Amino acid sequence: MRAARTAYPLKWRIMDALEGIAAAIWPARFRRATPYLMLLPAVLLVGLLVLGLIQIADASLRTLDTTTFQFSDDYSIANFRRALTEPLFLVVAQRSLVAALIVTAVTLVFAFPYAYLMVRTRSPRLRKFLLIALFLPFFIGQVVRAYGWLIILGNQGMVNEALGLIGVAPMRLIYNYPAVLFGLVQYMLPFAVLMLAPALTAIPEELEAAAGSLGANWVRTFIHVVLPLARPGFIGAGVVVLTLSLTDFAVPAILGGGSQDFIANAIYDQFFRTSDQGLGATLALMLVALGSILVGLVFALFGAGTLAMGRSRA
Amino acid sequence: MKRFKPTLSHLSRRTFLQATAALGGASALGLRSSYAQEPEKPAEIIVRAWGGSWVDSLKAGVSDSFTKMTGIAVRHDLTEDNEIQPKVWAAVAQNRVPPIHINWDTTTNATKSALRGVTEDLSDLPNLANVTDLAKPAGLEGFPIVNTYGYVYVLAYRPAAFPDGPPKSWKDLLDPKFKGRLAFYNDGIGFHFPAQVAGGGKLEDIPGNMQPAWDFITKMKTQQPLLGEDPDFTTWFQNGEIDAACTISTNAREARKNGVKIEWVVPEEGAKFDTDGLWIPKGLPENELYWAKQYINHALTKEAQQVWLDGLGLPGVVPGLTPPKDLVGDPSYPTTEADFQRLIRISSKIQVENESEWFSKFKAIMQG
Amino acid sequence: MQEPFRAGASREAEGGREIAVTVRNVGMDFDGIHAVKNASFDLPKGRFLTILGPSGSGKTTLLRMIAGFQTPSSGEIFINGEAVSAVPPHKRSIGMVFQRLALFPHMTAAENVAFPLKMRRRDARTIPERVERYLALVRLGGYGGRRIHELSGGQQQRVAIARALVFEPDLLLLDEPLAALDRKLREEMQLEFRRIQRELGVTTINVTHDQREALVVSDDIVVMDQGEIQQKARPIHTYRQPRNAFVANFIGVTNFIAGTVRSVSEGGDVSILRGALTLAGKIGDPVNPPAEGGKASGAIRAEQIRLAGDAAQLSKLDCVLAGTVIDTIFEGERMVYEVACAAIGDEVIRVFDHDPAAHKQFDIGESVFLGWNARDMLVFR
């Protein structure tokens, strides 16, 4: 008897009981509906998002009357006209777009060697260190990190103090466009590394050895073998970094010194500073459109990368 | 608007006791008898407030004594003012009971709500008989809002950066040595009107012709100023990032309390004066509306104002308040007619109707 | 008959043929573990050498050192007489076919084959013709435009071979490329390797754990175990004259009977005692012969044992034992009998019958007699 009991451990008994309960709640004949049941929460969330978008679209067509602070009952495209003609919004949109492109390019360049080393190193200790260094910023959060840069790069910050030691007068290192780009790159790096790493892991190390034995030095191996095969990772990482940068709020707000607004900051202003939800909704829709067009363009030009639907072919 | 929080260190136990004692007397003599037929008391009323010492001052000066007097608990909702606004608007539009009883708000923001018609009229508060003109929202019918104190957007500066004496004019900030060393609010609030004067324009032309203001702000843009919100100014002064700023005196005073050498002036062109106030959203049950009004009425007593505004370091709306020691005769704490002569006050109605445009205009210049 | 084992390398050996690869006293340590110990051999030009051993024997490490992916901890490797320890892989003239082929999935078959030519900056105008020629060599003419994933496993093998050979390397290395194939395809590709190697005459080193493959394809076999070279010999010698018990056991099916050495003669005859039984055999390893009175074991191949129901039928054989059939395994081309012999403590002897149709069949439990010739039993200490 005792032998039988050890042969059928407690864990299995608990699983049996749970399966029994599950079968009572959700009988086997419902099984064909199970995948749909699993899908339900996601569908609900997406549905809510769509509802929100519809509301935003509705709001974007109504104009604010500042004598009553009520929105018009009838629809007009006045908000869209304002958004497309007022120089402020064009400046802000252009700044966001250019920043997103620069940040994406720079982040990918920096993320690649990091991801490559993390995936390929033979030292488990180095890999662990790189992983921790990568994840630590995630726990710290974007806003705190941005304030950290204020402390480090400020007039009386560590960098300026160090410069002072070699006789350089304090410099304004923050509250400008490069500071925003710097903050964004630093923020995006872990995302890019995490998107690149699986793509690099999927490249058999043997391929690089093969390229070497076939006469390619490491530069040519990188260009002809690693880079083309890592493309799905680059596309996935690029799309994530591009959209996150384009829509970022906190970094331009904190590191920009107020004069480096991105589209998201302009939207916040409309919603919460001037109470013009109509114009805010318009800008939000245009941001969604801009982001979608960019992502669509990337997918059209380079394919969907690691974000591809369906099974990849060997 | 994000608020920096002055400390309550100067709010001594003695002044507090004085205030509550006086209140007790006042309620015993007047209030209780005048409201013999009181409606049913709610268990609590909810007041939206700014956090930290702002809410501490309000609690010490108004809420605690109100609870003592009426037995009604006061809960402080610390949702940001600009974020509660859409919620209240939505509740009124849908005929729901609003999420708060009283909103402590900037007069400009409150006026938007008044124009939208979501505020209760407060004209029948008994204590309005004793207040100065400041309590009345300019350009609005009746009392949809009651202003409770004023504040000044001063020119705050580091004396070390002005060896030849304090700046006399906003134009002094155009000196090239201040390039990158100035700060304004990121929507330019507080600076539009003095800029109109400094640019050679007239205040009467607001809002019709503000070109002088935009010209002056365009010149100021070449100085590459920092743009921020209330807490930023204190931080920037403390970290030595800026030499001068157009900001509410409270922020400069906060940096001074933290040991930074900061002075402030009202330049010859003047400085913008504005107010904060209290208001009640529409849609409350009758009895709750009654007690919310009693709360605001109580906030207008001299005793409540004295304790509350000592905490904030700002001038109140009842006569005879004693200014904090460090602010006696200070331009940011106007008390006399002469003091007010030097300040610029534009009606809230004009402000809210044009604010959006001014903000965009300022942003377009600064972001360009 | 057997080649003398040489530790040193000479420029001229094997009837004057030039030496392509010399491995001299090469060792490799990983964290204090000796993956390869003091390995030495010469490989003349144009020959096909197989390094055969179980997993963990150090055969792949040795190959990777020759390819240049690892640097020996000690010793030196010479290719065409030049020491190559300091030469990176891409500067060695070595074509390699990898275990998992390592074909570039983002390129077509032709692009894969063209890759080494491009990397070696060969004249671009000659590349297409050359690629086509090598695809034809591996019987893939016309398949150049296919993507790698559109090719069958065997076709992929052929692309990998063409890619490794197209730039006419001095040396071809095969790192167990056939291990993952099914048996039929594997045997087909083994012959294909041999054909191509003979056609081009390229010096080749192949690594495998498959003794059959080693016997089929190689001119020479190096058997490795636990980082050490056990034997280097031609396939037939490796099979017939294994140098030690490991080689005898690893290649083919061999029965071992342990005993005590009773006598050793000048001519190489040995007899060992096992209980009441005396077994006659030959010295297996002349370098390390068994000593009288010492322990030794006799090794006899399963196919060299005859089986009969009657001892009289085995009268011509030197050694006859009685036993009982305990299992019969039909493998198609042969029948395998497992026979327990009382004389050696019921130890099991395996016997092959390669022509079951012509011989009497035995059932489990039947009493049988086994017999073999003394010259077929090799005695190792």
Task: Please describe what this structure looks like.
The complex is a heterotrimer of chains A (about 325), B (about 375) and C (about 375). Chain A is mainly alpha-helical. Chain A has two domains: about 10-50, no CATH class; about 80-305, MetI-like (MetI-like fold, Orthogonal Bundle), CATH 1.10.3720.10. Helix content of chain A is about 75%, strand content about 0%. Chain A has 15 helices and two strands. In chain A, strands 1-2 form a two-stranded antiparallel sheet. In chain A, a hairpin with a 4-residue loop joins β1 (about 65) and β2. By secondary structure, chain B is α/β, with parallel strands linked by helices. Chain B has twelve helices and ten strands. Chain B has helices at about 15-35, 55-70, 80-95, 105-115, 190-200, 210-220, 230-240, 250-255, 285-300, 300-310, 335-340, 350-365; strands spanning about 45-50, 75, 100-105, 145-155, 180-185, 225-230, 245-250, 265, 270-280, 345. In chain B, β1, α2 and β2 form a beta-alpha-beta unit. In chain B, α7 (about 230-240) runs parallel beside α8 (about 250-255). The longest helix of chain B has 22 residues, at about 15-35. Chain B starts with 12 loop residues before the first helix and ends with a helix. In chain C, about 45% of the residues are buried. In chain C, a hairpin with a 2-residue loop joins β5 and β6. A six-stranded mixed beta sheet of chain C has the order 7-8-9-4-10-11, with helices on both faces. In chain C, strands 1, 2, 3, 5 and 6 form a five-stranded antiparallel beta sheet that branches. Residues about 1-15 of chain C have low confidence and may be disordered. Chain C is elongated and about 75 Å long. Chain C has helices at about 60-65, 110-120, 125-135, 155-165, 185-200, 210-215, 235-240, 245-250, and strands spanning about 10-15, 15-30, 35-45, 50, 75-80, 80-85, 95, 170-175, 205-210, 220-225, 230-235, 255-265, 270-275, 275-285, 295-300, 305-310, 320-330, 335-340, 345-355, 365-370, 380. Chain C is α+β, with helices and mostly antiparallel strands. In chain C, α2 packs across α3 (about 125-135), α2 packs parallel to α4 and α3 crosses α4. Chains in contact: A-B, A-C. The interface of A and B includes residues 273, 276 and 277 of A. Chain B: GO terms for molecular function: polyamine binding; thiamine binding; thiamine pyrophosphate binding. Chain B: One of its GO terms (biological process) is polyamine transport. Chain B: It holds the Pfam family TAT_signal. Chain B: Keywords: Periplasm, Signal.
